[in-house]
Amino acid sequence: MTEKALRLGTRRSKLAMAQSGQVADAVSQVTGRPVELVEITTYGDTSREHLAQIGGTGVFVTALRDALLRGEVDFAVHSLKDLPTAQPEELVLAAVPVREDPRDVLVARDALKFTDLPRGARVGTGSPRRMAQLNAYARAHGMDIETVPIRGNVDTRIGYVRSGELDAVVLAAAGMNRIGRIEEATDFLSADTVLPAPGQGALAIECAADNAGLAAALAELDDPFTRAAVTAERSLLAALEAGCSAPVGALADLPPRSAPLERGDSHADGQIVKEMRLRGVVGTTDGTTLVQLSTTGPVPETHDQALALGRGLAAEMLAQGAAGLMGERAH
Known about the structure:
Strand 6, helix 4 and strand 7 form a beta-alpha-beta unit. The strands form 3 sheets. The chain has a 5-stranded mixed sheet with strand order 2-1-3-10-4, with helices on both faces. It has a 5-stranded mixed sheet with strand order 7-6-8-5-9, sandwiched between helices. It is built from 10 helices and 13 strands. Helix content is 32%, strand content 21%. Helix 8 packs parallel to helix 10.
């Protein structure tokens, strides 16, 4: 008798289905069991409001977590950047697989690069984080752009450029890679220009905390370095985020490895890396004020060390005035 299929809860979007399908194949290999996708509609998928208005964090996650808690699915796959920083006790983050490219990309008309955009160019993004950094970069480099808030899936967003409504849109490289459309990107935005969202490019595989057998099997897909990096990034976000949808960017990386990665050379492994760099930014969406700092420390070997790296940088950013840039702080 064949073993019962594992049920993987996923959002219905093309991107979510693509990344969940990749995880399903990997889980099937480590468990020897078939995996079936269970499509779940989340509030973030049905609401037409801008993400900042509907609360940003959690809107794509809650329905999946509810299905897990009710036992309707055995595990779920999330984009890690969508996960709220607080982890519910009944659920365990069983695996964070190797991260995709964390950078943002530009899809612009006429194959334009960001720095070649004409004066007054309209650049679409639904992210206050991207707006803050794009506007700050433009301001610092004598560019004149207008950031335009947009919603929608990858097709919808790129459609605004193809129709001429916008000159460019900014998307995550990871998502474009996972749906096989990265060749449509006209520019890769270096992390020096735009720091990605905390956890961008990484996936989170979650299951019920009391399902120890499944958690152990899923843990085989975990990449310890990616987990340490995203833990540090999310710790920074948690320490900054006092109840606000803050335009925070963060990236933990390995300085010797990141330069070749940014050039697209993935064969940069091999050298022994002892240090992790964490960069963080928060700013006003018009780009007039940014607090951007970085810190370097030993590569974290425990969860607590990764948390401490993020909290330490957050404390420095708060001391530099980051708190005042994030709207009302919760009391």
